Structures are given as structure tokens and as C-alpha cells.
Amino acid sequence: MATVILTCAITGGDDTAGRFPAVPVTPRQIAESAVQACRAGAAIAHIHVRDPATGKPSLDPALYREVVERVRDSGSPVILNLTTGAGARFLPDDAAANTAAAGSNLHPPAQRCAHIAELRPEICTLDMGSLNFGKGALINVPSHIEAIAATIRAAGSKAELEIFDTGHIALARHLIDRGVIEPDPLWQLVLGVPWGAPANPETMLHMRNQLPAGARWAAFGIGRAEFPMLAQAALLGGHVRVGLEDNLYLSHGVPAQSNAQLVDRAVEILRALDIEPAPPDAARRMIGLPQR
Fold first, then answer.
1. Angle in degrees, CA 186, 146, 80, rounded to 5
2. 141: which DSSP letter?
3. How far is it, in rounded angstroms, from Cα 276 to Cα 257?
């Protein structure tokens, strides 16, 4: 059988926690969900944290530390992938110049990756550009990307490059050529985010073809595109991702009860294609991480 790495994105940072009880909020809930997702077949858990009191996204390193410690204390072999994407959301004020409106969450690079410097995770994400995002924008200018990339390298973490559109691939290749980003990162193609690259087979194939020869890549779709894009990525030779960060439904009109349930469905689809999800130790070998 072919083998792919399955990532589970545990909670994300969108305003879903109050409306969907399955979305984990506290460090304990996030850690337990990551462990359960691993038992179901996910090799990697992608982690954001939330303010336990409000459910809103947080940058607090103490919350990340608690999640990491709880997962490690559980004995789970899951690979932890911590985000650096939080802290980039911008909504401009409609009347005042150079002013952020309510709902913005812009932070300097040092705050966005303080938890990476402290916790030194095996993998962490690096958003490779700006884009319109819902009613606002995600702002990732080159100087900030370079600053976060430097922290990732100093921490000894593997960078997973988040690619929301084709121009992000061009910038990533430029930064790799300059030595800012390690020469063999992971590439994650993000499809279906309003208003990034659309979730369809043509776009995924086009983006895959822009990657460097031999690149290790994955792709995922948002919302109802989650499972179709999982199958498409696996068939094109990529790795895959599911989770409550990306999609809240098991099927049309049926809310998912847990991240593990989404992983179960992903494993079912992969095995129907004669593709096996890699366990964490095999995933570490596949992406060049040290064995634990």
C-alpha cells in the first residue's frame, strides 16, 4: 500500500467555539483531542490555542506550554505542529486612516512565535503571504515572514509553509534560494479559504506543479471540500489533513462530534483508495524528523 501522513487540525482560531460544542477550547480539551486523533490514525496534530474563558484565539505561550505538556505526559507519540499564523488578522477602520477596526488581531512577529522559541516543537507553520480573508485580511508581509522563519530555524523546528495562493509559492522559493527558509520544508496547500485559492482539482494540480522537484507536500480543503480534497491530494501523491479547524461537519447537515470522528472518516476514505495512514514513527522518517 501507498502511505500518507494524516494531520489533524484540532481547533483553529475562528469564532466557532461558542456555536459548535465539539470544538475544543481549554488546553486540556485540545490536548485530549490531539491524543484521540492520533489513536484514530493522525500522525500530526496541528495546534492553536484559545482563551479558556472566551473561546477566542490566543497567543499566550502558557496555554501552548500546557497543551504540549499534557500531550507529552499522556505518552502519545503524536507529532505536534504549533501554529505561527495567529496574530495576523486585520480589518481596516472605515473612517479613520491607518486604523484597525474591532476584530483585528495584529501582533509583531516576536509575539506570534514566542511559543516556538520556548517550546521548540517538531513542526510549526509559517504563513507565506497575505490574502483577503472573509471580511478582512491576513497580513503576512515579507519582513515578518523572514523574522518568524528565523525563529523557527533557531528553534530547530521543521517549517510547514502554508500556501494560500500561487504567489506564496513564488515567495517561498525565493526565500529558500536566499537561505531564509531551510531547503527542504513541508508545503501545505490551503484550498477553499475565502478568498484564497479555490478548492478544486485543477487548482490543486496547478499549485502542486509549481513546487520544487521532490517537494514534500500536503493539501486540504475547507468546509465541505475537506474530504474531496483529501482524496484528491492522496491520489496526486500528497499528504492530507482534516480537523475541526477546517470543517465542522461529518456529512451534509451532520455536525462532527470530535476530531477523532473526522480522522476516522479520513482513514476510511484513504483505505478505500488502498492508501494507509502513516503512524507517527513512520511519519517522522518520511519528513526527516528525529525519532523520539
1. 40
2. -
3. 24
At 182 the three-state DSSP class reads coil
Cis peptide before 195 (omega within 30 of 0): yes
Model pTM score:
0.97
Instruction: Give pLDDT tens digits for 207-255.
Output: 999 999 999 999 999 999 999 999 999 999 999 999 999 999 999 999 9
Place of cell 486523533: 37
> Which of 253, 255, 246, 291 lies closest to 6 in space, CA to CA?
246
Q: How far apart are CA 175 and CA 146, in angstroms?
A: 8
**Residues 149-158: pLDDT tens digits?**
999 999 999 9
d(CA 104, CA 3): 40
Instruction: Read off the pLDDT band of 1 (50, 70, 90).
Output: confident
pLDDT for 18:
85
- The H or E element that residue 275 is part of is strand 275-277
> Alpha-carbon distance 79 to 113, whole Å?
18
Grid coordinates representing 264 are 476516522
Tell me what percent of the chain is helix, strand and coil, each rounded to the nearest 5.
35, 25, 40
pLDDT for res 165: 97
Distance CA(10)–CA(35), nearest Å, equals 10
- Residue at 101: amino acid letter: A
Helix (H, G, I), strand (E, B) or coil at 138: strand
> Would you give the DSSP letter of residue 289?
P
Q: Exposed/middle/buried for 51, CB within 10 Å: 0-12, 13-18, 19+? A: middle
Torsion over CA: 57, 62, 65, 71 (sign): negative
